[in-house]
Design brief:
By secondary structure, the protein is mainly alpha-helical. The two termini are 19 Å apart. It is elongated. Helix 2 packs antiparallel against helix 4, helix 4 packs antiparallel against helix 8 and helix 6 packs antiparallel against helix 7. It contains eleven helices and no strands.
Length: 241
């Protein structure tokens, strides 16, 4: 089977699964709402970063992106659906590539809309405090936010394929995102700069002092995602469905 029919088939699965559509809606709503709330915060802090404040809703919003990538893959393992999928598409690598495409593209598109809406909502609250943001910095924040969300969704998809369980993937990723960087970040020092979430979120800052820069940080996140995706693909190709 050619790649295009496989891609259409996987896209139909996404469109017909309500939880998947719901997670994208949640990503938009949660990110925008938290960014809007951040827009009315105190701006007198000397370390105040208007760009990160405007896009800070991505921190809770990324959980929805992770859930999207997880559910897109884990749904195949319910009721042995994976056997039917691989029977229709014997080339497992082609099937997995199509699955990843229908994870990446919707999250990237909705991520762009989400980041733009979050920035607009937060700027309305920040008022003159955000006047120092240049058009280039705002464009970098919006595009970088969307790419970051896409990479986190792909990371979740790869981990789900590796573990063959959505519950196991979410139980690993969500505590990691909510605990590691925030709780042990200061104690671990610069080592956390290379974690997938912290490295990727550098692109959301107007100014930064981390070891990696905005696009380098996204590159680090991409390397994490690629490594996990390769491990998931190897598990898929080498094991029984």
């Amino acid at each position: 089977m050619q790649f295009a029919p496989v891609l259409r088939s996987e896209a139909l699965k996404v469109l017909t699964l309500r939880p998947l559509c719901g997670t994208l809606s949640a990503m938009f709503a949660v990110t925008t709402a938290f960014s809007a709330l951040a827009g009315v915060s105190d701006t007198s802090d000397p370390e105040f970063d208007p760009l990160f404040m405007a896009l800070s809703g991505v921190t809770p919003g990324q959980i929805a992106a992770v859930a999207f990538g997880t559910v897109a893959v884990s749904s195949e393992y319910q009721g042995n659906g994976i056997r039917l999928s691989l029977a229709a598409v014997p080339r497992r690598g082609r099937w997995f590539a199509a699955k990843l495409a229908v994870v990446a593209v919707p999250v990237l598109v909705v991520g762009l809309l989400t980041a733009f809406a979050a920035l607009a909502a937060a700027r309305a609250g920040l008022g003159p405090a955000a006047d120092g943001l240049t058009a280039g910095e705002q464009a970098r924040g919006v595009v970088g936010c969307a790419v970051y969300l896409m990479l986190m969704a792909l990371l979740a998809a790869g981990l789900t394929a590796l573990l063959r369980s959505g519950v196991a993937a979410l139980s690993t990723l969500i505590p990691f995102l909510l605990v590691v960087s925030f709780v042990i970040g200061d104690a671990a020092g610069g080592a956390t700069d290379f974690l997938p979430d912290k490295a990727g979120q550098v692109v959301l800052h107007q100014t930064y002092e981390e070891t990696v820069g905005p696009w380098t940080g996204l590159g680090v996140t991409a390397l994490w995602a690629a490594a996990v995706l390769l491990a998931g693909a190897r598990r898929l190709r080498g094991g029984d469905a």
